[in-house]
Amino acid sequence: YPAGDYIRLDQLAAELGITSAVAENGGYDDITPILRDLQAGGASLIICHASGYQTVCPEFANETKVPVAVIENPGAISPGLVSDIETQAQEVAYLAGVLAGKETKSGTVGIVVSGEPPTWNYMTVGFAEGLKATNPDAKLLYSVIGEAAYDDAAGAKRVTEQEIAAGADIIFGMGDGASFGMLQAIEDHNSQAGATEVRFIDVIGDKSAEHRDALLTSVLFDYTGIYRDMVNDLKNGAFGKVYTMDVKNGGVRLLDLPDTVADDVKAAVEQAKTDIVDGKVTVSAISDAEGMKAKLAELFPQ
C-alpha cells in the first residue's frame, strides 16, 4: 500500500462496516504464503498492490475462489473473482513533467526507474510529454536500475548520482524501496558546499515529512474511491472488471506543491490539469517498454 493509505483504508473499513488487514513488506518473491495467511484469516477480498503480483494473485484466486484485485493486468479479469486497477498515471505524470520543465535551471531533467512495468512506462511517457510541452529545449535522461530492481536502494543511488553528474537538477524517480537510494544521492549532493540544488519528484507516497528539502512533489495514488467501489460491487455481484483512476476522478494527483514553487508555475500545472480534464490535452498511454523508448526517442532525440 502507498504511504498514508493505511489510514484511508481503516477509515473506509469503518465507514463500510468491514474489517481491514494489511500485509506489509511482502517483497517480490513468491507471496503465496502471505495470500494463504490472509485467506486463513477470513479475507473475502485481497488487493494485490504491486505490478510484481500480476500473475500470482489471479492464480491464487482461481485456485481458492478468493476474489482479488491486481494492478495493470486487464487480461486477468474474471467475473466475480478478479478485478483490475488501471491508474492512467500518465496523466498526472504529465503534470509532473510540466512542473519539471518550469522548475529546471540546468535544462536537464532525469528519470530513474527500478524496472519497466506498465505503470512506470505510462508515467515515463506522460512525464516526457509534459516536459516537452513546457520546455521543448530541455534534455531528458532516462536510466533503468535493473530488471525488477524495486528494492535496490544501492543501485538507485549509483544511477541517480550518474544522472546528477550529467547535469540533471530534477529527478523523477519510480522505485518503491529503491526510491530511498535516489533520495540519498540527491541529499548527499545537496549537502556539498556550492552544489547546484537537485530536487526529487517521487511516486506513490508522501515522503515530505522526512525529505522536505529534497522533495519537489510526488505522484499520489488515492485508492479510496476504488476501494469503496470494489467492496460495493463485491456485495452486489458486479465484481470482476476494470477500475480506472485518473486525474478527473482524483484517483491520481500531485502532492501539494511547496511554497518555494512560484505562483505562475503552480498556475501552469493547474492549467495543464484543466486541459487534461477538458480533453484539450490527451496524454499518450504507452504500457510496453519498447513503445515507451520509441516515444522518448521521438520527443527527445539524442
| Share of β-strand residues | 15-25%
Q: Considering DSSP H and I runs of 4 or more, what fraction of the residues is helical?
A: 40-55%
Oligomeric form: single chain
Give the structural class: alpha/beta
Walk me through the structure.
This protein is 43% helix and 16% strand. The chain is α/β, with parallel strands linked by helices and 302 residues long. The strands form 2 sheets. The chain has a 6-stranded mixed β-sheet, sandwiched between helices. A 4-stranded parallel β-sheet has the order 1-2-3-9, with helices on both faces. The two termini are 37 Å apart.
Helix and strand topology:
Layout: H1 5-16, H2 32-40, E1 46-47, H3 56-64, E2 68-71, E3 82-86, H4 89-103, E4 108-113, H5 118-134, E5 139-144, H6 153-165, E6 170-174, H7 179-190, E7 199-204, H8 208-211, E8 215-221, H9 224-236, E9 242-244, E10 252-254, H10 263-277, H11 289-299
Parallel strand pairs: 1-2, 2-3, 3-9, 4-5, 4-6, 6-7, 7-8
Antiparallel strand pairs: 8-10
Helix pairs in contact: 1-9, 4-5, 4-10, 5-11, 6-7
Task: Summarize the structure in short.
The protein is α/β, with parallel strands linked by helices and 302 residues long. The protein has helices at residues 5-16, 32-40, 56-64, 89-103, 118-134, 153-165, 179-190, 208-211, 224-236, 263-277, 289-299, and strands at 46-47, 68-71, 82-86, 108-113, 139-144, 170-174, 199-204, 215-221, 242-244, 252-254. The protein has a 6-stranded mixed β-sheet, sandwiched between helices. The chain has a 4-stranded parallel β-sheet with strand order 1-2-3-9, sandwiched between helices.
